Structure formats: structure tokens, C-alpha cells
């Protein structure tokens, strides 16, 4: 009932006197009818007139309340939504193509930048085994970006070059502070991810479930991965966050359009099991004893770096904000990401970043 009243109030506020005139007209007609028919006494005429006055007053009050309600809501939206950075049309690339793995954090860093600056881009999903989509390139890692025919490689270098091309004004951020935290993302934060999303069998399976439900189509069957029996090769292929290949087999399994149902189930459980053991190796490699504690510590370290500001960049995100957000985006709605938000203070910043980055600028390839 309260919702209906608010809607009515908003309607009356928008429609002004029109909303008042209808009931006034009906009440006036009723009063006139009662007088002409001589069926009501003067006392009832007095009651009608006072009721009419009261109704008009209440309607006006509701209109004012509706106006205030609408104004407060609009103000709140204005305060909470951070607009994307506008890039002048003349500075926008004519064609931008990103070669990527969907769940790769380095690719997601680039996408966060492109989405925030609203630079339309096409995506080419790369086969992590054959790399056939990159056969034209000597550089075989992802991300690779083609900008109006020019090749750009390495996520941080890609962002630096694009930023130089599209920015219309100098950044107000402290360049040293920004560089420091971007380096922290690449050297530290990314290494917290795999040990967390694959820390036990249930989370490994959850990760594969999520990836397979968000992926695209591919063509290589899982059993091809381990024909050589080379554990190191499998580890590099399997890990989406480490290794020289920066590769993402879990995502690739999600793009398994040529898998039968049985093969997909086998791939899911085999992949989850493999990544569970890989995550244990990564913990040892990066000297992580408690992966959740390490993730929480990294999140709080980032929040402390903000020093009470909305973003490291101040009132708007800078390149470090976009790097942290891009790397965390693939895990945000997995158990590890949910735990991170529930057990640290990073949630408010992440929500602001979601609003600031907004919808994807991706276009159909």
C-alpha cells in the first residue's frame, strides 16, 4: 500500500493541478447534485465543502511529498553513479581487437580500461593449445591488442599506450603512487587468486562451473592436454593466473562447443582436480601459508592505500584502480570473491568501480 501511495504521489507531483482537478470536479458535482435535489441539509453541504478543502490540501501535500521523494532519489543516484571518462571522438581508435582468454586477469585489466573509457572493441578468443588465432604474430601470449592495424602486447604496456592516445587532459593522479600500485597488482595481487579459487575441491568445482557457464565455443578436447604426460606443460596451460603462457584452460573448457556432455563432465572434474593440485604448488612458490588470509590482507592493503578517498585517483578511478578492479573481476562472484567482500572493507570501493566502469564496450566481432 505504501508503494502505491508513493507512486500516486509521484504521479500527482508530475501532473500538477491535473491530478487535483479530477477529484475536485467529482466532489463539486456531488455537492451540486445534493443541493439541487434538496435531499441533503445545509449541514451535509457544509461537510462536503470541508471535505473538498481537506482533500485538496492533502493532494497538494502529497504532490509536494512526491516531488521531494523524487528529488532525493535523483540526488542519491547522481551522487552514487560515477560517470565514465568521455573520450573525444577524434581520439578514439577506428578499430580495436582484443585477443584474449575470458578469465585471464591480465586480459580483464585491459577490458576494464576499455570499458571505463568506453572504447568499443571486438574480442577474439584464443585457443590456448594451438594459438591458431595468433599464428600471424610472433608474440604468442595474451592479451594482444590490434589498434588500427598496430599490434600492442603486454597488458600494462597496452594500457599505457592507449592511455597516451585517448586522454584529452593530463591525469590529476600522483604518477609515482599510481605506478607503485599498478606494479603491486602484477607482482603480488594476481598471485593471490589461483590458490584461493582452487583452494579445495568444492571451490575448484565451483570455479569450473562458473567458467563453463560464462564461456564461449572452442574445439580442443581435454584429453589432448596431457598426451605428453608433461606435468609442467599441463601446469602452465591450466593456470589462468601464472606461468609464462598467462593462459586459461578453465575458461577454454567453458568454450567447449565440441565436447559431448560426458566429455564436459570429465573435463570439469579432471580440470578441477588438476587445478587443486596446481594451487598447492603456487602456495609454496609464493610462500603463502593461508590463502584466504593472504587475499584478505591484499584487499585491506588496497583499501588502506585509498586513504579514505573513493578511488586511488581521488574522485575518479585512475589506472591503478582499473588494474585492481580488472584483476578481481573474474573472482568477484565466486566463493573466494564473496568471502573477500564479506570479510574486508573492499566491497564499497568495488561497488563504486562497478558503477564507474559500467557496461561493457564490447561489440560483435
Summary of the model, kept short:
59% of the residues lie in helices and 5% in strands. With 365 residues, it is mainly alpha-helical. The two termini are 48 Å apart.
Question: Can you walk me through this structure?
Answer:
This protein is mainly alpha-helical and 365 residues long. 59% of the residues lie in helices and 5% in strands. It is built from 15 helices and 4 strands. The chain has helices at residues 2-15, 17-37, 42-80, 105-116, 155-166, 175-187, 193-197, 201-214, 231-238, 249-254, 261-285, 291-306, 319-328, 335-343, 347-357, and strands at 96-100, 122-125, 144-147, 150-153. A 4-stranded mixed sheet has the order 2-1-3-4, covered by helices on one side. The two termini are 48 Å apart. Mean pLDDT is 73; it is low at 1-81 and 215-259.
Proportion of helical residues: 55-70%
Tertiary shape: globular
> How large a portion of the residues is in β-strands, by DSSP E?
under 5%
- Average pLDDT rating: 73
How many beta-strand elements? Answer: 4
Biggest sheet strand order reads: 2-1-3-4
Measure the end-to-end span: 48 Å
Amino acid at each position: 500500500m505504501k508503494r502505491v501511495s508513493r507512486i500516486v504521489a509521484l504521479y500527482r507531483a508530475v501532473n500538477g493541478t491535473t491530478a487535483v482537478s479530477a477529484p475536485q470536479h467529482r466532489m463539486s458535482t456531488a455537492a451540486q447534485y445534493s443541493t439541487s435535489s434538496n435531499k441533503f441539509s445545509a449541514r451535509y453541504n457544509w461537510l462536503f465543502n470541508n471535505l473538498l478543502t481537506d482533500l485538496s490540501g492533502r493532494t497538494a501535500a502529497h504532490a509536494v511529498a512526491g516531488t521531494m521523494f523524487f528529488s532525493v532519489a535523483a540526488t542519491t543516484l547522481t551522487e552514487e553513479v560515477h560517470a565514465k571518462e568521455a573520450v573525444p571522438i577524434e581520439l578514439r581508435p577506428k578499430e580495436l581487437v582484443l585477443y584474449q582468454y575470458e578469465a585471464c586477469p591480465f586480459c580483464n585489466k585491459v577490458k576494464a580500461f576499455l570499458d571505463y573509457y568506453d572504447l568499443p572493441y571486438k574480442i577474439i578468443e584464443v585457443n590456448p593449445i594451438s594459438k591458431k588465432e595468433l599464428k600471424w604474430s610472433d608474440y604468442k601470449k595474451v592479451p594482444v591488442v590490434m589498434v588500427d592495424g598496430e599490434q600492442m602486447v603486454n597488458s600494462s604496456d597496452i594500457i599505457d599506450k592507449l592511455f597516451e592516445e585517448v586522454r584529452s587532459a593530463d591525469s590529476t593522479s600522483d604518477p609515482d603512487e599510481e605506478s607503485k600500485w599498478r606494479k603491486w597488482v602484477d607482482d603480488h595481487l594476481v598471485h593471490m587468486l589461483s590458490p584461493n579459487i582452487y583452494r579445495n575441491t568444492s571451490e575448484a568445482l565451483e570455479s569450473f562451473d562458473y567458467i563453463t557457464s560464462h564461456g564461449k565455443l572452442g574445439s580442443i578436447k581435454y584429453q589432448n592436454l596431457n598426451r605428453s604426460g608433461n606435468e609442467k606443460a599441463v601446469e602452465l596451460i591450466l593456470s589462468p593466473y601464472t606461468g609464462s603462457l598467462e593462459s586459461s584452460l578453465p575458461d577454454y573448457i567453458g568454450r567447449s562447443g565440441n565436447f559431448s556432455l560426458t566429455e564436459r563432465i570429465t573435463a570439469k572434474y579432471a580440470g578441477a582436480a588438476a587445478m587443486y593440485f596446481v594451487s598447492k604448488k603456487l602456495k609454496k612458490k609464493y610462500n603463502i601459508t593461508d590463502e584466504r588470509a593472504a587475499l584478505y590482507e591484499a584487499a585491506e592493503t588496497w583499501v588502506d592505500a585509498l586513504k579514505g578517498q573513493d578511488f586511488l585517483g581521488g574522485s575518479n578511478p585512475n589506472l591503478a584502480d582499473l588494474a585492481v578492479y580488472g584483476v578481481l573481476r573474474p573472482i568477484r562472484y565466486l566463493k573466494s570473491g564473496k568471502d573477500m567482500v564479506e570479510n574486508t572493507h573492499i566491497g564499497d570501493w568495488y561497488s563504486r568501480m562497478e558503477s564507474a566502469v559500467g557496461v561493457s564496450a564490447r561489440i560483435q566481432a
